[in-house]
Write a structure and sequence with these properties.
This protein is of the alpha/beta class. The chain is built from 13 helices and 9 strands. Helix 10 crosses helix 11. The chain is globular, with a radius of gyration of 17 Å. About 50% of the residues are buried. It binds fe (ii) ion. The site of fe (ii) ion (FE2) has 5 residues, from loops.
Length: about 280
């Protein structure tokens, strides 16, 4: 094991027998969105991620929505390269890979083809963020992506009022092969009681199968996966915590196009069982 690892990283890898501990959703690139404004702040956030047990982070700046035409693929990739070099120089043991937090938009397919919209680590999964201010049905886009071998990971549905009010909305998304990503802070009550309750319900039901930090800084929205893992373990058991906080994030990062095609063809239920194999669903 790399002797530069922090104690928290070492504990996470050993405890879960993992090759990498991955955060698939984090706004850690400097100056691109509402994450860190400067390189110094970005390094501080990356240090906090390493102290929170992560060895790898997918940098997922906002794309489209109010960042339309700003954070295109080449910009994000160059920023990831720059941050990795800075982290080596600053002796922060964290690997950054490119990705994006992609706002639902009808231009996603052509922009993916043009290399402007990014998937998680260039693989088969794409973070899909619903607009906050209004509800727009994502099912059509989830199916379009699945048809191209890509699996949508819908980010923090528990933080959307409209989806919380009608939790059955997510069922067709799952049937079309999508996954639900919960934000670690939601499980700890950081986004209010409604988000907390919805997050735990979807997690216990096996509808939500991956947890990420969606951290933006070290103060207001810091990484808190260590606490979230402890709480998931306490309520739903160690197997669920390992699946949703460690194993599935790594699967999302390493996902191959075939995984997504299989999910779309097989429908949600068999695939969800496969993804959570050995996982107790809890109460
Ligand atoms: Fe985000």
């Amino acid at each position: 094991m790399d002797d530069r690892l922090t104690n928290a990283q070492r504990r996470r890898l050993e405890r879960f027998g993992a090759a990498e501990a991955v955060d698939i959703h984090c706004h850690c690139l400097p100056g691109l969105d509402d994450g860190p404004a400067t390189a110094e702040e970005a390094v501080a956030l990356c240090r906090a991620l390493a102290e929170d047990g992560f060895t790898t982070v997918v940098a997922t700046p906002h794309q489209l929505g109010r960042y339309d035409r700003r954070n295109g693929g080449p910009v994000v990739r160059a920023a990831v390269e720059g941050l990795n070099a800075t982290l080596v120089a600053e002796n922060v043991p964290l690997k950054v890979v490119p990705g994006a937090d992609v706002r639902l938009d009808e231009r996603i397919i052509p922009l993916l083809a043009a290399g402007e919209v990014l998937t998680v680590g260039g693989g088969s999964h794409i973070l899909l963020e619903l607009p906050h201010e209004t509800y727009i049905e994502p099912l059509g886009m989830i199916r379009l992506l699945a048809g191209r071998g890509l699996r949508a990971v819908v980010t923090h549905p528990e933080r959307h009022d409209a989806v919380r009010r009608r939790p059955e909305l997510v069922l067709p998304w799952l049937a079309a092969g999508a996954m639900l990503q919960l934000t670690a802070g939601s499980l700890l009550g950081d986004f209010g009681r409604g988000a907390e309750d919805a997050a735990w319900r979807w997690l216990a039901a096996g509808s939500a199968t991956v947890v990420a930090t969606d951290s933006h800084d070290t103060e207001r929205r810091p990484p808190c996966m260590t606490k979230a893992i402890a709480e998931v373990e306490r309520r739903l058991g160690a197997d669920v915590a390992k699946a949703v906080c460690v194993d599935n994030p790594l699967r999302v990062l390493r996902g191959r196009p075939q995984d997504a095609a299989d999910a779309a063809a097989a429908g949600a239920a068999p695939k969800r069982r496969a993804w959570g194999s050995g996982v107790s669903r809890g109460a």
